[in-house]
Amino acid sequence: MGDRDDYKFLQIRDAIAAINQKVNLIGVIIEFGVPKKTKGTDCVCTLKIVDGSYPKPGISVNIFAESMEKLPHVVSAGDIIQLSHVMMKTHCGEVNAVFNKRFSSFALYEGKDGKDFLPYQVSSKFRPRDLDKKFIEGLRKWLVDFQLDEGHRVNLACKIVHICEVAKDEWMAFLWDGTDAPPISLPTKFEDELSNPLPLQLEPVPLPKDLLCTFPAVGTILRVIFDRGMQNQYLHLLHSGKWVKFVNVLCEVQSGLWLGTLTSFTKLRYTPNDDHLISVRQRLYNERLSTERGCIPYWCFPWSRITEVDYDHVPFVTLMDVLTYSEVTAKFKCVARVVAALPWRAEDFRSPLGTYRIRLTLEDPTARIHALLYGEDGEKFFDGYPSVDVLKRKLNKLLGLAVGDDGKEIKNAPRSPPWAQFCLKSYYLSKNEAWGSRQYRIFGTKLELGV
């Protein structure tokens, strides 16, 4: 390939047909693997790039260098990489590009928010050219409308409230900033609740009550795990009780709950307690607690009163308040969503003797719990003993099932349960093990849906 070919960038769509040829590519980075040692003396990392000709699924690029320092150090997903003289290869039926340290070169640029055309990292063999900025500008314009669909990447200014090993060599951090995570739409397969129920938490074993009591009772506690290879880099830097700033935390949905991941794109910044942003976070939290409805989720305003409760004068609490209350038996009023029901069929809500017996999974931004709807409490909730068809319509509205203008269920549409008020009471099954057998029941609550 002559020098004049250096000005010719192939689109990824065309490059995947140029097997065993050297090509020049420019693309947007959507994935970046952890750098590692090869079996020989080199280091290698793999990244995935896309462009307007090949936005999905992208193409992998394997980059080899003599040391970790000479590999690309990508700042953020969405940044742009320019590659010269990379070889197109196939492996296990998939096409990829191979960067050879002897003759290939790269340059890294900021993505769509970049203000200039100067690369923030280049390899030793990179030579800038006047036409480079034309290609960078074109990709930045394309990026304006392109959505990275690898999850939601967010920046967090938060407090580390806990860190623990949740499985062998698998650690989880618990982060809090005083705000409520947005509610998530849920799948419609109600029958999964029998064989594969929604978990109450993402950690395999519930945290002990004495530890939960140290957590803030208002605001979401975000569970965060470590991407492969990232645990050793971050774990010794994280300390409970410290405020930190994270840049580019990958947030995804697992079992209807938000889960964060610290990846190779994530950056950690230690933050003094008197940092302005931290001070604002704490001030807003204190102001929230001082209001009458500070425990009500942000996302339920404005809300429709689909339930009525008997204890209007009682202050609202969060589900975390319920879990950590100092006495085994107590009564509460909260605002939550019903994310699951067992049994899920209306015809099974009552026993052969006609007694209501339903387990609802309640969720607010702080926690999930199981709450039973039993006997006369079920009778009050459903306003007596309506037909199976009416019961089904009531439950579908409570679970946020999507329906069309004709009132029929929209198949496979995600559901968004509405916020509702509930009165709860806690009790125990065994006097000898009161805390270990603690349960929750819904009482004094009536469903007011006009169906």
Structure description:
By secondary structure, this protein is α+β, with helices and mostly antiparallel strands. It is built from 9 helices and 21 strands. The chain has helices at 12-15, 132-143, 192-195, 209-212, 231-234, 276-290, 319-324, 375-381, 388-398; strands spanning 22-32, 36-37, 43-50, 59-65, 80-91, 94-99, 105-109, 121-122, 152-167, 170-176, 221-226, 243-254, 257-262, 267-270, 307-309, 330-342, 357-364, 367-374, 420-428, 438-443, 445-447. The protein has a 5-stranded mixed beta barrel. A 5-stranded mixed beta barrel has the order 9-10-11-13-12. Strands 18-17-16-19-20 form a 5-stranded antiparallel beta sheet. β17 (357-364) and β18 (367-374) form a beta hairpin. The termini are far apart.
What's the short story on this structure?
The chain has helices at residues 12-15, 132-143, 192-195, 209-212, 231-234, 276-290, 319-324, 375-381, 388-398; strands at 22-32, 36-37, 43-50, 59-65, 80-91, 94-99, 105-109, 121-122, 152-167, 170-176, 221-226, 243-254, 257-262, 267-270, 307-309, 330-342, 357-364, 367-374, 420-428, 438-443, 445-447.
Distance between the termini: 73 Å
Rounded to an integer in angstroms, the radius of gyration calculated over CA atoms is 27 Å
Low-confidence stretches: 1-5
The counted number of beta strands is 21
Q: Please list the strands of the largest sheet in the order they lie side by side.
A: 1-3-4-6-5
Shape: elongated
Count of individual helical segments: 9
Structural class: alpha+beta
What pattern of helices and strands is seen along the backbone?
A: HEEEEEEEEHEEHHEHEEEHEHEEEHHEEE
Assembly level: single chain
Q: Which percent band covers the strand fraction?
A: 25-35%
